[in-house]
Design goal:
This protein has 227 residues and is of the alpha+beta class. It has three domains: 46-113; 115-164; 166-227, Nucleotide Exchange Factor Grpe, Chain A, domain 2, CATH 2.30.22. The chain is 68% helix and 15% strand. The chain has helices at residues 3-29, 33-112, 116-139, 142-164, and strands at residues 166-169, 181-188, 197-202, 204-207, 210-213, 215-221. The longest helix has 80 residues, at 33-112.
């Protein structure tokens, strides 16, 4: 390349740089040029911010959708658990009602048949009485009938004491005890130091060593008149 060409290119380059510098100076001197530059920069920033907000909005929308689906799944699970618990409650309620009715029937049966064994023990005694009556009708033997009745009475009271704890107690000659005796009449006995049972009008009974029925008796009254 010749020296003339090099000089020509250098001059062209310098001319372009001068034109750019003049254009910049012209823009700076032109009113509102700085504002337009700032607006342009703000617009670029706003555009970038808008894109960022759109990205954030998309993220929030995705998260919200995921939360809704999670809540729906949770509701479905709770509904299933509620249905299971309700079914268990109804079953238990029905079982308890059946149990209550069964217990009520058992209680009624227990009350109705509470004396079953006692009655079964009494039935043979009734049979003995029937046989004694038939025998007396045939033989007309009072002594034999009397002895048979006495035997049956001993068997009866013995069975009650042995199986059921029912025992007659003696009162004649015993000191009067209000917990065991009921004084029907009294008789003056100055020689007695305390009230003594003189006569037993109705025998008393103990049930397992506790007074079941008091004896009705005649009692002596030391130092008092007869009534």
């Amino acid at each position: 390349m010749s020296s003339r060409q090099e000089n020509s290119e250098e001059a062209f380059t310098n001319s372009q740089e001068e034109q750019r510098d003049q254009q910049v100076e012209s823009d700076l001197e032109t009113p509102g040029a700085g504002d337009r530059a700032a607006d342009s920069q703000n617009a670029a920033s706003a555009a970038a911010s808008g894109l960022s907000e759109e990205d954030d909005s998309d993220d929030r929308s995705g998260a919200s959708t995921a939360s809704v689906e999670e809540l729906k799944a949770r509701i479905t699970l709770l509904e299933e658990e509620n249905g299971t618990l309700k079914d268990q409650y109804l079953r238990k309620s029905a079982e308890f009602e059946n149990f209550r009715k069964r217990m009520q029937r058992d209680k009624e049966d227990s009350i109705a048949f509470a004396n079953k064994q006692l009655l079964l023990d009494i039935v043979p005694i009734i049979d003995d009485f029937e046989r004694a009556i038939r025998s007396a009708e045939d033989s007309k033997d009072f002594d034999a009938f009397h002895d048979g009745v006495v035997l049956i009475e001993h068997q009866f009271t013995g069975m009650l004491e042995r199986k059921w704890g029912l025992k007659r107690f003696e009162s004649i000659g015993e000191e009067f005890d209000p917990s065991k005796h009921e004084a029907v009449t009294t008789e003056d006995h100055p020689d007695h130091e305390s009230s003594i049972v003189l006569e037993d009008y109705q025998r008393g009974y103990l049930l397992h060593d506790k007074v079941l029925r008091s004896a009705k008796v005649k009692v002596s009254m030391p130092g008092s008149s007869s009534s």
